[in-house]
């Protein structure tokens, strides 16, 4: 079935043909749901062991990935992270009056952690890779 022939109720949110080279050989697919309470700052700056796709299911998330300008993702918005060396700087709940939630599919080698925190020193060393707000 092509995108124009999808059954009722099926919608393609995002298509990325340029990302398969980031998926490590032998990777497993992991589905992860992240729920952030009102005003939750989310995880500290970190890396993921492989690429991931995400879809905001509820609320608003302030999202900043190294090399990209910070942006607000709202319910229905999709995102992609290449993982590896790229730092996920921020993924906080942008609202103080409601929770936010995102569902992710991550591709990573078995046994690797979902995320690896980045030290304040390394973040400072890579400050030149951030895009100003």
TrEMBL record:
Signal peptide: none
Pfam families named among the record's database cross-references: Cupin_2
Domain Cupin type-2, residue spans: 33-89
Name this polypeptide is given: Cupin domain-containing protein
Origin species: Kribbella yunnanensis
């Amino acid at each position: 079935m092509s995108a124009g022939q999808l059954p009722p109720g099926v919608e393609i949110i995002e298509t990325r043909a340029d990302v398969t080279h980031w998926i490590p050989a032998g990777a497993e697919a992991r589905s992860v749901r992240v729920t952030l309470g009102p005003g939750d700052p989310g995880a500290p700056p970190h890396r993921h062991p492989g690429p991931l796709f995400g879809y905001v299911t509820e609320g608003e998330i302030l999202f900043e990935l190294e090399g990209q300008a910070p942006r607000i993702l709202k319910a229905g918005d999709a995102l992609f992270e290449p993982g590896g060396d790229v730092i996920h700087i921020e993924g906080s709940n942008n609202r103080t009056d409601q929770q936010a939630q995102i569902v992710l599919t991550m591709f990573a080698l078995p046994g690797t952690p979902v995320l690896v925190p980045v030290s304040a020193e390394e973040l400072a060393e890579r400050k030149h890779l951030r895009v100003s707000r």
